[in-house]
């Protein structure tokens, strides 16, 4: 069973013409781009976007990506992409759902795992940097109504 995230962000995306094949079906590789849009919104909400990551001295490459396609998205379709923060203390794990924005029908489920890599020497970190954990905890406190 898939765990629910502690924080979430949603973005709407309308499938552009350049993302589809001759049958007007979204090419499978473009779903990764839609996940990125939602992940960026989630990280912005946490206060630890890619600009802050770099400023704190860490990159967060994706080391694992899982996609499960249920139904094809099509040209012009309005999609809702939801990203949920599931893990953050040792790695960054995010679950995604891509749904039809009008009906709510699920089209795709996905997850990514990212790990911190110190920019100075390229060393992978076995725990998330304290600055990242602090940003997540601060956002969780705001969500729970703590001062």
Name some characteristics of this structure:
hydrolase; 3 helices; Thioesterase; 33% strand; alpha+beta; 147 residues; two-stranded antiparallel sheet; Thiol Ester Dehydrase, Chain A; 5-stranded antiparallel beta sheet; 7 strands
Would you write up a description of this structure?
- The protein is built from three helices and seven strands; from the N terminus they run βααββββββα.
- It is of the alpha+beta class.
- The chain has one domain: Thiol Ester Dehydrase, Chain A, CATH 3.10.129.
- The protein has a five-stranded antiparallel sheet. The protein has a two-stranded antiparallel sheet with strand order 2-7.
- The longest helix has 17 residues.
- Helix content is 26%, strand content 33%.
- Keywords: Hydrolase.
- GO terms for molecular function: fatty acyl-CoA hydrolase activity.
- InterPro entries: 4-hydroxybenzoyl-CoA_TE, HotDog_dom_sf.
Short description:
The protein contains three helices and seven strands, in the order E-H-H-E-E-E-E-E-E-H. The protein has 147 residues and is an alpha+beta fold. It has a single domain, classed as Roll (Thiol Ester Dehydrase, Chain A).
């Amino acid at each position: 069973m898939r765990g629910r995230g502690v924080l979430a962000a949603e973005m709407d995306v309308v499938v552009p013409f350049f993302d589809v094949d001759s049958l007007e079906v979204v090419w499978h590789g473009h779903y990764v781009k839609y996940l990125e849009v939602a992940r960026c919104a989630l990280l912005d909400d946490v206060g630890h976007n890619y600009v802050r990551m770099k400023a704190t001295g860490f990159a967060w490459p994706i080391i694992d990506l899982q996609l499960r396609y249920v139904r094809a998205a099509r040209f012009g379709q309005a999609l809702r992409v939801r990203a949920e923060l599931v893990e953050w203390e040792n790695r960054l794990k995010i679950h995604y759902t891509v749904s039809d924005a009008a009906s709510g029908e699920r089209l795709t489920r996905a997850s990514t795992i990212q790990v911190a890599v110190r920019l100075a020497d390229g060393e992978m970190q076995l725990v998330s940097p304290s600055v990242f954990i602090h940003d997540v905890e601060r956002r969780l406190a705001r969500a729970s109504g703590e001062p």
